[in-house]
Design brief:
The complex is a heterodimer of chains A (363) and B (305).
Chain A lengths: L4 H7 L2 H10 L7 H16 L11 H6 L5 H9 L1 H26 L2 E2 L7 E2 L3 H7 L2 H32 L6 H9 L6 H16 L10 H29 L3 H9 L4 H12 L1 H17 L2 H6 L5 E6 L2 E6 L4 H10 L6 H32 L1
Antiparallel strand pairs in A: 1-2, 3-4
Chain B lengths: L1 H10 L2 H39 L4 H6 L19 H8 L5 H33 L2 H13 L4 H14 L8 H21 L4 H9 L4 H12 L1 H17 L2 H6 L8 H10 L6 H21 L1 H14 L1
The chains are: A mainly alpha (363), B mainly alpha (305).
Amino acid sequence: MNNKPDETNAAGKKIEAAATEAVEPEKGKGASSKLMYSESVSASKAHSAAAAPRKKTLKEIFFGHKTSYTLRKPLKKWWFLFMGPVTAAFIIGFVWPFIQGIYLSFCKFKLVSDAEFIGVDNYVKAFSDKPFMRSFIYTAGFALVSLFFINIIAFAVAIALTKGIKGSNLFRTVFFMPNLIGGIVLGYLWSMIFDGVLSAFETSIMTNSTWGFWGLIILICWQQIGYMMIIYIAGLNAIPDDLFEAARIDGANSWQILWNVTIPNVMPSITICMFLSLTNGFKLFDQNLALTGGQPYETTIEAGKAVSIGQTEMLALNIYNTFYGANTNSRGTAQAKAVLFFILVAVIGLVQLAYTRKKEVQQ
Amino acid sequence: MKDNKNATAAIEPQLLKDAKKVSRKKSGISLTIVFSIISLVYVFPVLAVLVNSFKSNTYVKTDTFMLPINDAEHPDIWAGFSNFVNGMTIGNYPFVNSVINSFIITLVSTFLIILCTSMAAWYIARVDSFLCKVIYYLCVFSMVVPFQMVMYTLSKTADTLHLNTPWTIPIVYLGFGAGLAIFMFVGFVKSIPIEIEEAAAIDGCGPLRTYFTIVFPMLRPTMISVGILEIMWIWNDYLLPYLVLDINEYRTIPIHIQYLKGSYGTVDLGATMALILLSIIPVIIFYLICQKYIIKGVAAGAVKG
C-alpha cells in the first residue's frame, strides 16, 4: 500500500482500494489497470461487501463489465458523436493504409490500382538490395553512436543542473530550445555551419561521408540532448533527499553516491531515454534528407549493373528513394522494405515496453 | 523537503556543515560559468543564422563566421533586409502563403485532435466494451508504426478522398496522430473518480452536458500536454504534408525550405538564411511563452510513450 497513495486518493474510499488490492494482487500493471478495476468494484461490489474478492468473468473482460450503469446506458446512445469522428479518421489515416500496405508488399505495382500478387518476391529483392543492407548497417551504427553520446551528455548535464547552481532554469531553457526546431530547418541550418567550417579545408559535407556521419551525430546531439535531459531531471528530482543524506552520513564519496544511489534510482529514466534515442535514431528522416540527402554517392559494378549507393543514406531515406525514385517498378520492393522497417522499429518498441514493465514491477 | 534538510543538518557536526557549504558554493559558481559558456555555444547556430541572414549571398558560404560589416576585403557583405525581401518571392511560391498554410494546418489539426480524441477517450474509458478495447489497442499499436510503413498508401487514400488541402488534411492528422492522444487521455480519465460523473448523471445530466461541463474542465492539464506534443509534431512535419498536399498549390514552411534547395541549381543562400530565421522566430516565441507547459508536456509524453 505504501507506494500507491495516489490511487487511494483518486479512488476516494479506502475500502475500494483494499478491495482492489485483494482482487488483483498478482498484477503489477501500475495505476491505470488498478483503477479500471476499482471502478467496477466500487460500482457494484464495494458498498455491499468489501471483503468479497471476485474475479473478472471472461464476458466482462471482452464485453465490458457492469460498471456504472447510470453512466454507460445514456452514453452508449451517443456513440456516434463520441467515437464516430476518431474511428472514421483512424480508419482513413491508419487502419486502411496499414492493411493495404501489408497487402501491397506482396504485389508488383506502379499504382495502387494495378497491383498484381507475386508472393514474397519483394522481400527477396529487398534482402538482396545492396544499398538497403548498407543503409541498415549505417543506420544501426548511427543509432548506437548517437545513443551513446546523447545519453552520456544529457545525464551529465542533468546531474549538474539538479545541483541547484545559479541559472539552472535558464540553462535548461537554452538546452531544450533546439528540440522545437523542425528536422528540415535544422538540417539546412547545420549544413550552413558545417560548410562554413569545411570551406577552410576546401571540402563540403556533401562530398565526404565521414564528415556526413559525424555532422549528423553533432546535429542530433544538439537537438536531442535537451529532451533527454528533461527526462533525466524529472527522474533525478524524484529521488528522495534522505537517500543522499544517508549515504553521506555513512561516509560515501560522491563517486560512490553516483554509482550506488543515483544511477540505480534513475534506472527507469535511463531505460526510457536509451530506447527513445535508439528508435529516434532508426526513424531519422528529415535531418538526413536536409543535411546530406544521402550524398556522396558511390557507384559500384554489381553483376554487370552499375549500383550507386548513398554513403550517408539511412533506412527511412532509402525506403523513400526506392518509392519515389526514377524507377517506378521498384515500388513493391519499397513497400516490402517499409514492412521490414516497421517490424524492426516495432520490435525495439515492444522490447522497451516489456523492459519498463519489468522494472516497474521490481520497484 | 525542508524539514528533512534541517533534521539532518542538526545531526551533522557544525564544522563539517560549514566546510561543505563553502565547497558547494565554489563549485556552484564555477559550474555556472562553465554552463554559461556551453549555453553560448549552444545558441551559436541560431545566432549564426541571424547574422548570415543579413549577409550578401556570396559571403554566406565562404565567410560564414564573420559579422556582416563592410571592410576592404568584403566591400558589400552587408545586405540589409534585401535577403528578406528576396526570400518572400523566391522558389515560385510566396513564403507568406506557406506560413499561413502552416498555421492553418497546425491549429485546425491540434484543435480537432484534442476535441475528438478526448471525447473518444472518455467514451472508451467509461463504456469499456469489446469494440472500445479493440480501438484502444489499435491506437496504442499505431504509436509504434513508423510513417514510412503507410506513407504510400496513406497518400493515395488521402488523394482519392480529396484530403489534400490545408482545411482537410487535419482529418489525416487526426487519424495518424490519434494513437498518442487517445493513450494519454484514456490514462488520465481512468484516474478521475467516476463518482463525480455518476452524480451528474443521477441528477439528470445528459452525456453531452456531462462531458462538456464536468469532464472537459478536468482534462485540461492533459489537453495542454497533448496539444503541445501535437503542435510540435505537426508544425515541423515535412513528409506527411509533402506527400498528401497538392504541392503546386499548398506548401508548408518545411516544404518551402526543402524546395529552395531541391529544385534549383544555384541556391540564394542569403535568402535561405532569412527564411530559416523567419521560420524559427514563431517557434522561439511559442517556446518562450509556453515554456513551462512545453517542458511538462514533453516529460509526460516521453514517460508514457
